[in-house]
Amino acid sequence: MKREAAIGLYAAFLAAPLLVLPGSPANAKACPVKTVSDLKAADAAAKAVAISCDLRLDAGDVVRAPIELSGSKASNVTIDCGGGTLDGTGYKAHTLAIRSIRQTDGSWDVPHNVTVRNCTIKGDLRIIGMAENGQGTWLKQSSISEGHTARAQAAAPAKITVSNVIFIANGRIPLYAGPGTTGLDVSGSQFIGSTNSVVIYFDAESTGNTVENNVFDIRTKSREQIALDGSADNRIAGNTFTDPVNGGIFLYRNCGEGGTIRHQAPQRNVIIGNKFRYKSASGAKPAVWIGSRQGNSRYCFNDAAYPFGSSLNSRDFAEHNSVTQNLLPGGSPSLIVNNDADNQVSGNR
Q1: What is the pTM of this model?
Q2: Which of 269, 217, 271, 270 is nearest to 244 (CA)?
Q3: What angle do CA 291, 292, 298 make, to 5 degrees?
Q4: Given the DSSP bridges, would you call strands 101-102 and 108-109 parallel, antiparallel or unpaired?
Q5: How far is CA 315 from CA 126, 203, 278, in A?
Q6: Which residues fall within 8 angstroms of residue 324, CB to CB, at 6 or more apart?
């Protein structure tokens, strides 16, 4: 995403106050009846609501206040909308944010094992570790030392399950996995509406995530549907992309943006059994593009002077990936582009 827009969004997020409703920490229990009723009564102008209890809604319920699951007290929490809606229309905060908290000693208090299911989300779901995006202060500071990938992953939310969710995009990125996110599992969900950027963004140093059996029937302004930006060991399988003329799945490394060194390369990703269905493939960008940037961004040397990662070499190093058995009705295998070494590309038709 563009640096100015990302920084502005991050600043607005940090400035937003929180309203903490009572709940049970650690091993979450059901939210009290009053907590649920207060949440449903809050409007879009309300403070963001931090919960640490299992939230259960019913079909027809609409929650208009932004929700936060913050730190380890939000671990093991389930949000089951039961067909209800989290409506982020009309405010700048994230519809739902799952985030780590930086402690005064510099350590990170991290949520694990969070489940979001059976919801309609109007707006976005954001997963936030060291930073909201690849340009945050603490992330940048960590990136100038060896061992950054492990630190970013240890600081980020892990084992997040998103299932049977309808994402209705309203311009923002519907699902953003921030730097270091591990074990995000997105399945059985739909993405509709329109976004000014991508649909799912896996930011730098993220790893071991799964996107499986989802439907992407969504318009992007100019970009691809899924971005793997320095993200490794992910599995993207069995999804359907409806007319992804601006691109399907791109693998690259966003060298130097914001001065943050990207240590991890987009490697060992498995992209298998997806369907890219085109009305017309004339002029379409690649369905899968391995190594889509290769240092061709204006900010690629903003992280210079360190002997590792994108500071040492701005190329994507999108290697050891597997792109197999994908179907491209209305298109052709030529829409799968491999610009790097040691990748397996086969059985696509």
Answers
A1: 0.91
A2: 217
A3: 115
A4: antiparallel
A5: 28, 16, 30
A6: 271, 272, 273, 344, 345, 346, 347, 348
Beta strand spans in 188-248 (E): 190-195, 200-202, 210-212, 215-216, 219-220, 226-229, 235-237, 240-242
- Report residue 17 as tokens: 């106050």
DSSP at 83: T
Distance CA 157, CA 55 (A): 19
Return the CA Rg of the chain. 19
User: How confident is the prediction along the chain (349 residues), in pLDDT tens digits per residue?
Assistant: 443 444 344 344 334 444 444 444 445 699 999 989 989 988 877 688 999 999 999 999 999 999 999 999 999 999 999 999 999 998 889 999 999 999 999 999 999 999 999 999 999 999 999 999 998 999 999 999 999 999 999 999 999 999 999 999 999 999 999 999 999 999 999 999 999 999 999 999 999 999 999 999 999 999 999 999 999 999 999 999 999 999 999 999 988 788 899 999 999 999 999 999 999 999 999 999 999 999 877 777 777 789 999 999 999 999 999 999 999 999 999 999 999 999 999 999 9
